[in-house]
Amino acid sequence: MRFLRKLFKYALRIILVLFSLVILVMILLYVPAIQNFVKGKAEQYVDENLDMKLSVGRILLKFPLDLAVENIYLGQTEKDTMLYADVIQVNVALTKLLKKEIEIRRLIVENAAIHFEDSLSALKMKVALKELSLRVDRLNLSQQEAEIPFIALKGGNIRMNLGSGPSAVDTTGGGEPVRWHFKVGEVTIDSVDYQLQGLPMGKFHAGMGEALLKGVDVGLENQTVDLEKITLVRGFCDLLMSESTGEQRETEVTAEESTPWQIRVGTVELVDNRFLMKPMRVPVDAEQFPETIRVSALSLKMDSVFNRGTEMAAMIQNLRFKEGNGLDLRDLSCRVSLESEQTNVSNLVLKTGNSQLKMNLRAESGISDFGMETPIQLSIDGNIAGQDVLLFLPDSNDQITNWLSDKIFSLSGLVKGKVDQLNITRFEIGATDGFSLKSEGSVSCVTDMEKMAGELNLAFVVDRGAYFAPLLSENEEVGFVLPDHLSLTTDVTIANRTAKVDMKLKPGGGILHAVADFAWQEETYRAEVHWKDFALNKFMPNDSLGTITAHLLASGRGLDWKEMIAKVDVGLDSLFYNGYDYKNIVLDAALKDRELTGELVSDNPELDLGMKFRLGLDDNAYKIHVNGDIQQVDLKGLHFMPENMSFSLGLNVDAELKADRTSSLQADFSNIVLRDLATRKLGDLDITFSGLPDKTLLDVKAGDLTVTFEGDGGSTTLIDRFSAVGGLLVEQIEKHDFNMERLNELLPDFRLTLGAGRENLLNGYLKNNGIRFERVALDVGTDVSRDFRLNSKIYGLNIEGVLLDSLFVYAKQKNVALCYGAEIFGAKDQLEGLSRLTAEGNVEYDQINVRIREHANEEGEIFNVGANIALQDSAFSVSISPDPLILGYVSWQINRGNFIRLKQGEIPAANLQLLNGDKRIRLISEENAHHEPESLIVDIKAIDLGGFSKALSFLPDISGLLGVDMQMYSKNDVIDLNGAVKVDDFYYGKEHVGDLGIGMTYRLSRQTEHDVDFSLSVDKVKALLVKGKLMTGIEDKNMALDIDIPKFPLRVAGAFTPPGIMNLGGDMIGAFQVKGQMDQPLINGDLRFKDGTIEALMIGTTFKIDSSAIKIHNNLLDFNHFGLIAPNKQRLELLGTVDFASFSAIKMDASIQAKNFQAMKVKENTETMVFGKLFVDLSATLKGMLDNLKVRGNINLLDNSEVYYTLKSSPLELTDRSADVVRFVSFSDTTQLAADDELQQISPVNLDLLMSVNIAPLVGLNVLLSSNGQNRVAINGGGNLTYTLNPVGETRLVGRYVLTSGVVSYGLPVIGQKDFKIQDGSFVEWTGDLANPTLNITAAETVSASVTDDSQKSRLVTFKAMIKISNTLEKLDITFDLAAEGDITVQNQLAAMTAEERSKEAMNMMIYGTYSGPGTVAKSNASDNALNNFVENELNQWSRKHLKNMDLTFGINTYNQVSEAGESKKTDYSYQFSKRLFNNKVRVKVGGRISTDNDPAAGGVEENLVDDIAIEYVFGKNPNFFLKIFRHTGYESVLEGEVTQTGIGVVLRKNFQKFMDIFRRKKKVQVEPQKEPIENEKSGK
N or C: which end of the chain has fewer CB within 10 A? Predict the structure, then answer.
């Protein structure tokens, strides 16, 4: 017991000692010296055992547990720091420790840094904290509970690099479940930055400016997180993606199923955050959506956020941000609910600055269970702005951008069903007054091609085609358009592994119907397309397209070219293009065994061709063969050109392209025939091409045209080298550094030769453009030294009538320079003054040297000029060589060192003086201190324009003395020009214009402002004044001009008209104001004529010009009854307007009216070809654009018209032309050959003309076939003709001109003068071709002859010798006939003869005056008749010369008469007088005869003196309805003898096509009066 007490006593002492030691140690720890000792021991231990360095600046421990460590460092080296901190301070409550709880009253870490690096995984981590503070009120280790009032982090920076080593694998086993429960009152974070590198996707960088987490409750046991509020301000996240450069490391991770965390947040708010995702390689200035997504100003407000695994719910109150592409999302709100059995996004509203969308989405499953069988429903409604659409089209062009910029589209849709079986209940998109697209249908099994099925119906309607016009047209040029009310319906059906499409397109005219199907398993397809009167012109209104009717059938199997079998049949039934209807065009094609074969056939008169083709493909080459026969391609008939142009040819083409890049072509065009104004057989065209790896050969032959090319290198190589030469040449020209050696380094070795004569395609083509030649030779390439050379020779070159005998051009390389030359020889009778013109020089670097010389002719050397042109940046200068210098046959003296320099933005600088006697040309400039031109003086005196016109014969024939006195100044970027130009005694052709004077004051300011003051004087009288300002800036292009015309002589304008057309007299007076934009100015003013006259020289009639004003108001010209006044004082008035609001589309809407207008009043003279009088009524309208004018009207030739036309050189005059029976032509004479091969150049006229020409029946037309009027044609008649001229230049004349009376008087050798009277009913009819009418004219002459029968008894018989003209003018048929209507016996004899026999009798009667029918004896009085003809002609010529306005003819006839007293000669003298009175209303005819041996028993001379008299009075204007009073004496028959008839009657004559028409009564047709009786505006015909 005692032992126990001692043991207990000592034990208690030991415990007290130990406790005291502990207490002592604890007390000692508060002693600074002990603290330093402990710090030293700790540093020594770490250094010796851990191979690391530990350094602590100071340790301060305060009672009870308030520890502060300053300047702590843990690491291996100074650069390898594991831990560093300025201050770590911890204050722990001691009393709570006794309760097994920890209370950290204060934990502060300042300026701490942690660096961790794993050498195995290459993981690196650096953490830097500026300040961390927190407080723990309660930390119960046994209950695993913690209550933290606040945590504050300020200034954090975290850098991590995952490295590329193997990842560490957690091998620790599972422990006891963690039941910790944390409650945090508030977490504040300020300025924290986090970077993560080493990710496969790239680099991750995130951070936040300010963050607040409030009311945090984390339960690790139940895996729950609850937060009252999360706020993030100025946060950012950057994801810079890198391209994968190797195989990614794969880590096998076995995921164990665990209970998902549950997170609840009361409020989430993000303010002014940003997000960036882009590839690392893309710089900022090259960022483009969607490759780069840059979101800024991101703000978000959410309430009631819940998340557990795949379940989520939230209420998004507002989401807004701005994307780098321009998208401005101003508001997005919705309610999101992702549950285990349902997914729902409801009331989603999205708003941008221009768009607004509403959407609802519902799925009957959770996200994890979402599958093909999940029922879903999606609805969407709203408006989408085109500006927002453009944000997702970064590569759109300006055309799409401009179109979408102001568009708003409506969107509406509803989709129901399952993912694998969707029903599109409604899908609509459209725009107001634009278009609408509606769709509905269903689709199932979209992921299974074997089971896929569905139907889709689409309906697209264009309400207004102009809505799409800016999208479809470029540069305001209307190309393809969509017509108004266009409808497109499409039905798509998918079933049984087959897709079928049924489409109908209706543009408002016709229909396009297409049906197609495709079976993807069998790879079979079929398509059928039908066009029925489909209006292509609705889509392309400016392309001359019309309607199309056609069909297309296509079918096939397989998609691999090697195994594909297909067939296509295309039939074109009708296609209207450019006014032509293409019909019966068939294309058949088939593909089988890797060979495509087909045939194209066209059965149109103007497009007649047949072609077969074959395209084959094997493993080594492509092979093409085309064979065809083009029978006819009529370009005029197809309306491609107004001139006659057609061709035909046969073709055979074989081409091959091999795998080794070699190729060959053989194209043969045979029997090429070109038809224009003549038929040109151009022969054959053969083209042979061979492309080898190291050589390219080309050979072309066409008629007498041959082209050969040979180049070293393959075709691709040659093309590349020639392209490089072209690029370098352009660069040298831009830099003014021409270097032939550098060009030659790139130029391949080649040679091109060309030789051609007259009969070839090239010459034929050029002729249609007014150019032709006799012979051409060209040789261009590189020579043996690889230097470039060119030689060309052209003989007989004719350019628009300017003929050159020969033209030689050469060029040759000489080091860096290119030497060139040209020699021109003028043709005889053309350019004789330029008999030999040469030009030679060289081009080197920025220098161009040239000398132009016309070698001496009979009058001397025309000109000889040498010049040097130096090219500089934005400037060039020209200097003229002083010796020799000849201009216009005159030798000039010029100063040495002369120059003219032109530079953009400066006035010209010059020092040029040319002198020749009193003639001079001076251009002198002065410079300022900066060596810039400050002034320029232009002084020209006494230059004879006639000398230059004579020297340069291609210039107009002008003459006069030119003088110029101009001064130009430049100061402070202002250029002033003032002075005068005069031409004394100016002549244009043979017309004297007068003394012309031009005064000018001009100022250019700021390079864009132009002040102009211009005046024109004629004979020292002001004629034209212009004053104002023009702006030529990029934005400012306004103009304001005042134009005054005080007195402009019309004769000045008349002098420039073609000679022989008109003479103008009087003056023009007016004033105009021009204001507005230069491209569309606004014009106002008026114009009038004083004493104005127009003399039409061809008809010799002078018309007065109306003196009333022509008004122009806002670009609208109003004629206001302006017109011409005829000699009979009647007016031709022009009414209407010309609208030139747009100068590119000037519109005219006018009419011309005239009544009884005397279009001609000319007395007989020797100057004009036409004389007489012509009266017309005219009514016409002119409408449309000036370049496509439509003219409709009527022109009536009135009864009181009498026109005489004189053939100055009649082709019908009989003259001795034996000298030209044989004509020898030298084929070396190019002028003669050109005349023989002259082609008429026909220019297209954009004029649609339709005129009705009505000729009154009493209009008289007289054609004098000889100058003395002895041979003449005088006709009366009328008719209705229609003349048309279409825009392609085709003219047509339709109608009939019926002759009521007339006479053809013609003097024939031997026969004498004959008068053939045109029989009533003759006509000339046109059916289209103006130059080829149909003629049906019968003219007769009365001839009296004595007929003696077998009994030797004779009697006087009156014959009608007739000439009949029939058939068309091109195939004219002329026959003669004879009739004796007054003698039955002779008439029966003539009737029994053949037409050929009667023709011979008619010739005998006209030549010999005899009749030799059966039972008669022919006796000739040719000698007497010859004398009678002479006397008769003289008398008739005297009467026509001295008896005007009346017709008096004489006849003398001598014949044999046999009676009981015997045979005797008898001569009859006859006369006929006719006269029209009272404006052709009354016609008087008087005739008679006197015989030399009148039988006194017959009544004597006085009885037969007037034996034929008739008086006719015409009712109205119809000459076929008249009253006739007559007395006629004539031989009736053998029994009756001579009979006298006297009477009165009413005559009505009508023409009928058929006999039965006499008994048919025509129905009256009611014609509604129209302003334009000819034109049907609606039909356009």
Answer: N
CB 1011 within 8 A of CB 1005: yes
3-state secondary structure of 1387: helix
Least confident of 86-100, 331-345, 904-918, 1465-1479: 1465-1479
Same domain, 1410 and 1356: yes
pLDDT in tens, 541-579: 877 888 999 999 999 998 887 888 999 999 999 998 888
Is 1573 part of a structural domain of the chain? Answer: no
Q: So what's the pLDDT on residue 1219?
A: 35
Cβ atoms of residues 438 and 427 within 8 Å: yes
> Are 1105 and 1093 spatial neighbours (Cβ–Cβ below 8 Å)?
yes
The identity of residue 62, as a single letter, is K
Three-state DSSP state, 194: strand
- Specify the DSSP element, H or E, that contains 1345: strand 1334-1349
- Residue 1187 domain flag: no
Residue-level pLDDT at 768? 64
Q: CA 336 from chain center: how many Å?
A: 56
Indicate the number of domains in the chain: 8
User: 1490 and 1546, same structural domain?
Assistant: yes
Supply the range of the domain harboring residue 116: 52-164
Contacts with 606 (C-beta within 8 Å, 6 or more apart), sequence order? 580, 632, 633, 634, 637, 638, 646
Same domain, yes or no, for 1372 and 1466? no
Mean pLDDT of 250-261: 60
* Whole-number Å distance between alpha carbons of 278 and 273: 17
CB contact at 8 A, 512 and 536: no
In a domain, 1104, yes or no: no
Tokens of 476: 């305001």
Shared domain check, 1377 and 1484: no
Question: What tokens does 146 get?
Answer: 């913690």
Which of these, 1005, 1139, 1149, 1013, lies nearest to 1082 by C-alpha position? 1139
Q: Check residue 1418 and give its pLDDT.
A: 52
Q: Is the peptide bond before 884 cis (omega within 30 degrees of 0)?
A: yes
CA distances in angstroms from 1053 to 742, 991, 1045, 1093, listed in the order given: 55, 11, 14, 12
Same domain for 854 and 967, yes or no, is yes
Mean pLDDT of 1140-1159: 86
Q: Determine the Cα–Cα distance for residues 270 and 1161; give it in Å rounded to an integer.
A: 100
Q: Based on the fold, state whether residues 393 and 279 are members of the same structural domain.
A: no
pTM (predicted TM-score) = 0.53
Report the candidate in 914, 930, 1052 with the shortest Cα–Cα distance to residue 986. Answer: 1052
CB 1402, CB 1379: distance < 8 Å? no
Per the rule left: phi > 0, alpha: psi between -120 and 50, beta: everything else, 457 is: beta
Q: What is the pLDDT of residue 475?
A: 62
Domain boundary among 570, 592, 614: 592
Same domain, 702 and 558: no
Same domain membership, residue 681 and residue 620: yes
CA distance 1435 to 1471: 11
Q: Calculate helix-pair angle for 1395-1408, 1422-1442, nearest 10 degrees.
A: 70
Residues 1097-1117: pLDDT tens digits? Answer: 877 888 899 888 889 888 888
Q: How many CB atoms lie within 10 A of CB 255?
A: 5
- Given 448, 466, 489, the domain boundary residue is 489
Whether residue 438 is contained in a domain is answered as yes
Beta-strand ranges (E) seen in 721-816 are 750-756, 771-772, 775-782, 788-799, 802-814
CB atoms < 10 A from the CB of 908, how many?
Answer: 16
Q: Which two tokens stand for residue 844?
A: 């080197």
Tell me what the pLDDT averaged over the chain comes to: 81
1213 pLDDT higher than 60: no
User: Is residue 173 over pLDDT 60?
Assistant: no
Give the pLDDT score at 1351: 62
Q: Positive or negative, the Cα torsion across 468, 469, 474, 478? A: positive
